[in-house]
Write a structure and sequence with these properties.
With 250 residues, the protein is an alpha+beta fold. It is built from six helices and ten strands; from the N terminus they run H-H-E-E-E-E-H-E-E-H-H-H-E-E-E-E. Helix 5 packs across helix 6.
Length: 250
């Protein structure tokens, strides 16, 4: 009840601000206070390896009903002209080697990755006031791993990947629906094996830097940065498995 009341107050304040200023870009009334459930103890980390720490955070968050899609993440890519683009994708695996996601190699992100393998990821879990930011490079996964994941997808998703030429211009949406319907006739049941399109597969993001962010009261956020390359600063500490870590100002 209090949450709804606070939301209404903020909304009314924002609308009043708009009517007064006459500007649609005035977002000054939109803010919340951060108060993490279990604050990160930077001085007593449960692990000094970022992939192990990520695993602890992800398991905690994915077990909560407050976050419906904990593996949703922003993927930022850049073409050869250094023009960036970003979109939401799904994290589909991680281990000590890095983070995995799947897509169409011929789509915009695939084309940009072919030109420039540098990427950035962001996972944000609002109810926990936490985010993880990753910087690294990509490499394609093996055809065997791509096949295994592709055939673990729902039957309809396999058909959709085969029907869509990602990022290309459609004459109309009906063209896509018709192509999907044709594939449904060709592979009508879940037991029918849909061939993985050769232009569809996965990537491994090999991290060079991983930052753990936690929102706190009065914007005194906690930031913990792990990096492969050791920054030239006396406050940088040695982590595990070739990582270094330090605390950043918010």
């Amino acid at each position: 009840m209090n949450l709804m009341r606070n939301l209404l107050i903020r909304t009314k304040t924002f609308v009043k601000t708009l009517s007064t200023a006459g500007k649609m870009d005035d977002m000054s009334a939109f803010r919340i206070s951060y108060n993490p459930k279990e604050p990160m103890d930077i001085d007593n980390l449960p692990s000094k390896d970022p992939m192990e720490l990520f695993d602890l955070w992800f398991k905690e968050i994915s077990s909560s009903e407050e976050v419906r899609e904990p593996n949703a993440m922003t993927l930022a890519t850049c073409n050869r002209k250094c023009e960036p683009s970003a979109r939401m994708v799904l994290l589909k695996g991680y281990d000590s080697a890095g983070f995995r996601f799947f897509t169409d190699y011929d789509g915009r992100k695939g084309q940009e990755l072919a030109e420039n393998s540098n990427v950035a990821l962001v996972l944000y879990w609002r109810p926990f006031h936490r985010q993880v930011r990753v910087e690294g490079t990509t490499e394609k996964l093996s055809p065997e791993e791509c096949d295994q994941y592709f055939h673990s997808r729902p039957h309809g998703s396999q058909l959709a990947a085969s029907a869509s030429n990602q990022s290309t211009i459609l004459p109309s949406y009906q063209v896509l629906i018709d192509k999907y319907a044709q594939l449904q006739e060709q592979y009508p049941t879940d037991s029918d094996v849909v061939p993985r399109p050769q232009n569809w597969g996965g990537y491994l993001v090999k991290p060079k830097a991983v930052e753990f962010w936690e929102g706190h009261t009065n914007r005194l956020h906690r930031r913990l940065l792990f990096s492969r390359e050791k920054p030239d600063d006396e406050h940088v500490k040695a982590g595990l498995n070739g990582w270094h870590y330090c605390v950043l100002s918010p």
